[in-house]
């Protein structure tokens, strides 16, 4: 089979590489010539563990190619995936679908024979109908079906998520389109991965409902952490105690500074606006969005309090700036609220991240970027952990203590144990587990 992947960003590149690993001939298309040049040289535009090796393997096998030439890629394809960005509109909160609709029009202009057009981008309910209308209007003689096939890829483990998914959701009522999608995902049938066929509308809503539910779960445990601090409970024990209930589950019950990234912030907002537009407001989700925004902004105050109520003239060492580990993605990262607030209070900030510093430099000014974790700490008044990279889980605490001016650690990801930190002589501040050694 032949697939054209329109958009070579995170979703398009990972999906294209994984389909090629399934034995499908894939052409990844992007209008950004520099990105295509990088990919043809084997340089990945994003950091995702294992992606460079997967791309190199399938390029060498001749199953994966890259181009800016839209026409031939679409004309030769059995399925064309739309995997372009759907960012939040400025000031509006809705998903910006202009890239999706532009892709649909260009696909219509280049289709040749029966083609399945697949929405892989995260799009609101009804987008498939509009894509179908655009194609029909642009090319009345086109033979095609529009399918919804949302992605459920977690940054940092996207390849495993694609090749061994919890489920694959396919929205179409066309048996012809179903057969094409079954063939594309045939390797997953062989490992008995759940394939959910549903209507296009239900498929579109499943994606938003899934992300919103996870964002709600994160927000719930964050609020429980705040309550734990007030009543003297330990949020780790609370999370374990409720997570062992099979109806709840243990995943996404890790208290922290709030969710960020490319999906949860924009998808919760988009679902809120979709629900308002149709007169079915989602009060829980509206609260989640508001609580999370306020939480990220409030994290700097924890650092300031740990430093005696002021960071003016003090140096703060920061470890981790990406929204989560194993990615270089800075979109809506808590660090984008925390670090500017510290700088505004006249702190000097030294920071290190294993993969995200190049992206972070574009977004965070007046930060001293360091070559490794320990370089941030020399003479600093406090150490703050914002992102839980594995490299930060096993710090040499004696060395950390010797480098810091004051043995203050603010751990916004709870990666250390309060008792052990107190025994090591630290004033340890975490989330929902009390303050040790103060």
What tags apply to this protein structure?
Rossmann fold; 15 strands; 7-stranded mixed sheet; 6-stranded parallel sheet; single chain; alpha/beta; 438 residues
Describe the protein.
This protein is an alpha/beta fold. The chain folds into 2 domains: 2-198, NAD(P)-binding Rossmann-like Domain (Rossmann fold); 290-436, 3-Layer(aba) Sandwich (Rossmann fold). It has 17 helices and 15 strands. The protein has helices at residues 10-21, 33-40, 51-60, 70-75, 98-110, 127-138, 158-163, 175-184, 186-190, 200-231, 235-243, 264-277, 283-306, 335-344, 357-361, 397-403, 418-423, and strands at residues 2-6, 25-29, 64-67, 79-82, 115-119, 144-148, 168-171, 195-198, 315-319, 348-352, 367-369, 382-385, 408-411, 427-429, 435-436. The protein has a 7-stranded mixed sheet with strand order 11-10-9-12-13-14-15. Strands 3-2-1-4-5-6 form a 6-stranded parallel sheet, sandwiched between helices. Helix 1 crosses helix 3 (51-60), helix 10 (200-231) crosses helix 12 and helix 10 packs parallel to helix 13. The longest helix has 32 residues, at 200-231. The radius of gyration is 24 Å and the shape is elongated. The termini are far apart. The model has no long low-confidence stretch (mean pLDDT 96).
């Amino acid at each position: 089979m032949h697939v054209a992947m329109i958009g070579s960003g995170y979703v398009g590149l990972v999906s294209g590489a994984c389909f090629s690993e399934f034995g499908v001939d894939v052409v990844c298309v992007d209008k950004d010539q520099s990105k295509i040049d990088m990919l043809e040289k084997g340089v990945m535009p994003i950091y995702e563990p294992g992606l460079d090796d997967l791309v190199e393997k399938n390029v060498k096998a001749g199953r994966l190619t890259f181009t800016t030439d839209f026409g031939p890629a679409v004309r030769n394809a059995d399925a064309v995936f739309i995997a372009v960005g759907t960012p939040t509109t400025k000031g509006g909160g809705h998903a910006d679908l202009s890239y999706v609709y532009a892709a649909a029009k260009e696909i219509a202009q280049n289709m040749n024979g029966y083609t399945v057009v697949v929405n892989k981008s995260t799009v609101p309910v009804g987008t498939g109908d509009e894509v179908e209308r655009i194609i029909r209007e642009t090319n009345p003689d086109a033979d095609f079906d529009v399918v919804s096939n949302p992605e459920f890829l977690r940054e940092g483990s996207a390849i495993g998520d694609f090749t061994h998914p919890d489920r694959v959701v396919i929205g179409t009522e066309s048996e012809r389109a179903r057969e094409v999608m079954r063939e594309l995902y045939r390797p997953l049938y062989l490992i008995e991965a759940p394939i959910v066929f549903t209507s296009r509308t239900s498929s579109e809503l499943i994606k938003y409902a899934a992300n919103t539910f996870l964002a709600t779960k994160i927000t719930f445990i964050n609020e429980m952490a705040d309550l734990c601090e007030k009543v003297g409970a330990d949020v780790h024990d609370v999370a374990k105690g409720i997570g062992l209930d099979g109806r709840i589950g243990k995943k996404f019950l890790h208290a922290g500074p709030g969710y960020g990234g490319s999906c949860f912030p924009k998808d919760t907002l988009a679902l809120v606006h979709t629900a308002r537009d149709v007169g079915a407001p989602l009060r829980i989700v509206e609260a989640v969005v508001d609580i999370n925004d306020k939480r990220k902004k409030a994290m700097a105050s924890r650092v300031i309090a740990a430093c005696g109520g002021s960071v003016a003239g003090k140096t703060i060492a920061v470890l981790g700036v990406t929204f989560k580990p194993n990615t270089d993605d800075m979109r809506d990262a808590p660090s984008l609220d925390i670090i500017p607030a510290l700088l505004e209070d006249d702190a000097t900030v030294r920071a290190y991240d294993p993969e995200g510093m190049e992206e972070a430099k574009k977004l965070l000014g007046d930060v001293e970027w360091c070559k490794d974790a320990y370089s941030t700490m020399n003479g600093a008044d406090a150490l703050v952990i914002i992102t839980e990279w594995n490299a930060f889980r096993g710090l040499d605490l004696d060395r950390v203590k010797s480098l810091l001016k004051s043995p203050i650690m603010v751990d916004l990801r709870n990666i250390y144990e309060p008792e052990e930190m107190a025994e090591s002589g630290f004033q340890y501040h975490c989330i929902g587990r009390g303050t040790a050694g103060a």
